[in-house]
Amino acid sequence: MKLIGSLSSPFVRKVRIVLAEKKIDYDFEPSNPWAGDSPIWEQNPLGQVPVLVLEDGNTVFDSRVIVEFLDNASPLAKLIPAPNRERTEVKRWEALADGVLDAGVLLRMERQRKPSEQSADWMTRQQRKIEAGLQMMARDLGGNAWCAGNAYSLADICVGSCLGWLAFRFPEIRWQDELANLARHFAKLGERPSFAETTPQG
Q1: Which pLDDT belongs to residue 122?
Q2: d(Cα 173, Cα 9) in Å, to the nearest integer?
Q3: Taking a C-beta distance cutoff of 8 angstroms, is the pair 168, 123 a contact?
Q4: 174 confidence band (pLDDT: 50, 70, 90)
């Protein structure tokens, strides 16, 4: 099994954390999807990472699909509950964290354009998504030990990957100062080897 992706991608990190928690062996192939000669296009027609290449050569892409596949591939350390209300809660956290990340990626890309080509309204809209998403995370986490239910799950992995990327790419967004419960949760997650070993790079 091979994972293709970027060490700076929060979506790749989410998959790498799941692989570590599930203790699944794999090979990692770094790939920059923005490079003109990136081999990622041969594996994913959308040109996005991560991509999981299976033993038979088939590929699985989109981090949400990959992590669900991996959670079902091994009974060890189940991260997604069986289909019921608890499962929906975990997947809702995933959608929230991924949505904040999508807004962050769009904001970062817009900022990389020439100033004359940037849209202030577009950037404000993405910033609003990030701020509102973080507020909802803090509200729903409250004083709970874990994001969903009474145990560590994919919800925590998604939130931790999201917060880690924001700290990496947008240090000026001081969510740690304003949302103390998220900061505590992020620090707790950072003590896990799966998080410590996948800190964003690049």
Answers
A1: 98
A2: 18
A3: no
A4: very high
